[in-house]
Amino acid sequence: MLRKFVFAIAVLISSLSSKAQILQPSAAYEVTPGDAGATYKEIEIYTEDDVKLKGWWLSPVSISSKKCVVMCDDGVGNMADNLALAGQFVTSGYYVLMFDWRGFGESDAFEMKPDYFIYAQFYKDVKAALGWVKKYQAKMTVVHMWGKGMGASLAIGAGAGEPKVTRIIADSPYITLEDVQIKYENAGEDKPKIPVIYDKIQLEPLYALEGGAQLDGVMYIVGANDYYSNELDIEKLVKVKKKEAYVYVVPDVESDETMSSNTNEYFKQIKDFLGVE
User: Fold this and answer.
1) 112 in any annotated domain
2) How far apart are CA 127 and CA 124, in angstroms?
3) Residue 201 is assigned to a structural domain of this protein
4) Which of 8, 82, 155, 219 lies most in the core, judged by the most C-beta atoms within 10 Å?
5) What is the CATH number of the domain that holds 232?
6) Of 58, 103, 91, 78, whose CA–CA distance to 14 is shortest?
């Protein structure tokens, strides 16, 4: 049943712009895990500033598993867009925590101004998701993370500072927020807005990776033709933690097609990195 769930939902993966993403929240879920008969429960996650986030906790066939993956969305649509990949983790024996950022899906409302690339408050959201696992799923001895775009960079920021997180999969991360603005400007686009005050270790992978001594693997996924998150960027991140790095360059695509261009290979590369069947 669960393996069918993966492919039934694959056609609903949202298309992303090849441009670095400006926030585009969606409230409605086009599909839920229950639509495919997956075993899951709806949860509420509370942040340190008392914002309620909507989450889904998906269970593998073997409920004795002690492995989980926390998934971080890219800031476009909502968590339902990642159900195909969540299904792959489930069939590989992982519990999966999916959640929506504040202002996305059925999480609490949050005012977002036009042309913002990220809000510093999103870091509180991913930290709260990790905190939920620690509090309510204490049996999890293996905690990994996956993120896309903005979510990839936030996964690195939060995961590097969380002792239980040992592996992170970062698909098309940015390296610093200043770099994002420079790339927009060089491409003749209006610079996206970023927080006026923020902690570089929390929001910028280039600095977050200087910590994270507990990490034994960071996988970077990048489209070979992408401009906003490219191989040169990944090389800069790899240099910070070279021994732990695993890089998958998806040929002939930009960031919006890293998974959809060859879904079987995308999943295979992730499973090879995690060492699962």
Assistant:
1) yes
2) 5
3) yes
4) 155
5) 3.40.50.1820
6) 78
Q: Determine the average pLDDT of the residues in 72-90.
A: 96
- Residue 277 pLDDT exceeds 80: no
Q: Is 179 helix (H, G, I), strand (E, B) or coil?
A: helix
Q: For residue 21, tell me if it sits in a domain.
A: no
Q: What percent of the chain has pLDDT over 70?
A: 92
Domain count, the chain: 1
Q: Which residues contact 197 (CB under 8 A, 6 or more apart)?
A: 120
Residue 219's CB is within 10 A of a number of other CB atoms, namely 21
Answer whether residue 246 shows pLDDT above 50.
Answer: yes
Confidence band for 20, pLDDT divided at 50, 70 and 90? low
d(CA 107, CA 150): 18
pTM: 0.92
Q: Cα separation of 264 and 146, whole Å? A: 17
Give the structural domain span for 82: 2-16+26-274
